[in-house]
Amino acid sequence: MGDLEVRDLGRRPYLEVHQLQQELLRQRVEDLIPDTLLLVEHEEVVTLGRSSPEGDAAAAGLPVVSIERGGEATWHGPGQLVAYPILKLAEGRRDLHRYLRDLEAVVIDVLADFGVEGSRVEGLTGVWIGNRKVCSLGVAVRRWVTWHGLALNVDADLSAFRRFRPCGLDPEVMTNLSRHSSLPAGMAVVRESLERHFRRRFGFGI
Question: If we measure between CA atoms, which residue out of 5, 10, 151 comes closest to residue 69?
Fold first, then answer.
């Protein structure tokens, strides 16, 4: 597989990064750029995927944006690491279920770096620590190029989830990695781990 460009965007507003994703998606479809991984923390926002009920999260008291990914409503904000792979799936990997399972596997490997056992829940997308959800996933694909991605709660304000039903679930189910492991270097060490495991899982050089 070719090279992977990783862009650490720091903290950015959601709509700014959504627009960037759209532009990179266009360029990747046309083979103008290599596969790209965006890593970012967002200002607070609630996003609604294609499966969100009408009016979902209207009372959240936060900006609400309807987007193209699968899944229902979720929150993004400081303390949450969001990863957007703009990835052209090779012929043998053009299976969205496999792609979602691969993204979950990346997160499970990240958690293992910090001594935490991550798991899947039958019938639900995402990654869990015991009976608590630590990572949400929602993706979209155009001409087999992926966009949108995953959101890993590292040290986020979980009270934001109580304003609506994240992914249709009880808000109390959400957790942070920091509740289960010491993170002396904070977000930086988690970003490094996620990039490394993403490269390994999808066949890029480390």
Answer: 151
Dump pLDDT digits (tens) for 154-190: 999 998 887 776 667 777 889 999 999 988 778 999 9
Number of domains present in the structure of the chain: 1
pTM equals: 0.92
Residue 178 burial (C-beta neighbours within 10 Å; 0-12, 13-18, 19+): middle
> Cβ distance 158 to 80 under 8 Å?
no
Q: Which residues are catalytic?
A: 167
The contacts found for 166-171 with CB under 8 angstroms, 24 or more apart, are 166/72, 166/73, 166/74, 166/75, 166/133, 166/136, 167/71, 167/72, 167/73, 167/74, 167/124, 167/126, 167/133, 167/136, 168/72, 168/73, 169/133
pLDDT in tens, 126-137: 999 999 999 999
The CATH number of whichever domain residue 20 belongs to comes to: 3.30.930.10
Domain hosting 147: range is 4-202
Mean pLDDT along residues 194-201: 98
